[in-house]
Amino acid sequence: MQDDLDRILFHETTILSRLDQLAAEISKEYRGRELTVIAVLTGSLMFMADLLRRIPLPLKLDFLAVASYHGKTETSGEVIFKQVALPDVKDRHILILDDILDSGLTLAAIREKLEALGPRSIRVCVLLSKKKRRQRHVDADYIGFEIEDEFVVGYGLDFMEQYRNLPYIGVLRKDLIAKALG
Ligand code: IMP
Ligand code: MG
Predict the structure, then answer these.
(1) Is the CB of 144 inside a 6 Å radius of any atom of ligand 1?
(2) Helix, coil or strand: residue 57
(3) Which residues, 6+ apart, have CB-to-CB distance to 159 below 8 Å?
(4) Ligand 1 contact via 75 beta carbon (within 6 Å)
């Protein structure tokens, strides 16, 4: 799989030490508050597992499954909630976890949906944020790393459902993307 990468952006050790910092910030912020973490599947799975094990607070964990990509590298613009029942968020402090902030459409839609359910507060935490103009503005309260506008895989992030199990994050070779989509 490593041959499919143009280059590695963040090694596992780099990711984990950044998570130490993020977890410390989050733990400080939510001490004494009833926290519910809502992780957006599937991309945030590794991130969620490693981050939450660094947060020594009582918390509830729930999941949301959405789809917007349909196997391509650009968002289709439509965010589909693949779930019938939404998590219980009323009167709770919600922290949304997602893998990456790209166009902003996914997180904006999720935030809107959860906001309507009457939470006490909502914050957003993403592992990666692309430096680009977003289609919808999203305030991420916690960001692991800012990256250029390139397509990345690994550590939960996929291209056509592959590469999620790479322990590090890298930029996928452009020729492979072109071939798969062509
Ligand atoms: P947005 O709605 O465009 O912000 O896209 C968010 C979702 O698109 C993320 O949760 C990812 O699943 C996917 N995505 C966006 N950029 C990348 C990338 O570079 N690699 C892998 N998945 C990505
Ligand atoms: Mg995703």
Answers:
(1) no
(2) coil
(3) 73, 151, 153, 172, 176, 177, 180
(4) yes
**Tokens at 152, concatenated:** 């990345």
User: For residue 167, what are its two tokens?
Assistant: 């322990």
139-175 pLDDT per residue, tens = 999 999 999 999 999 999 999 999 999 999 999 999 9
Q: Strand 93-101's sheet: what is its strand order?
A: 80-81, 59-67, 35-41, 93-101, 121-130, 142-147
User: What mean pLDDT value characterizes the chain?
Assistant: 93
Report the pLDDT value the prediction gives residue 67, as an integer from 0 to 100: 76
Query: Which ligand lies nearest to the CA atom of residue 79 in the structure?
Result: 1
Q: Is 21 in a helix, a strand, or coil?
A: helix
Q: Which pLDDT does position 81 carry in this prediction?
A: 83
Active site (annotated) includes residue 50: no
Q: Which residues contact 157 (CB under 8 A, 6 or more apart)?
A: 43, 99, 100, 128, 163, 164, 169
**Burial level of 148, CB count in 10 A (0-12/13-18/19+)?**
exposed
Specify the pTM: 0.94
Going by pLDDT thresholds of 50, 70 and 90, the confidence category of residue 56 is very high
Q: Which of 159, 161, 164, 165 is nearest to 178 (CA)?
A: 159
* Ligand 1 mutation pick, 40, 48, 157, max ligand atoms within 8 A of CB: 157
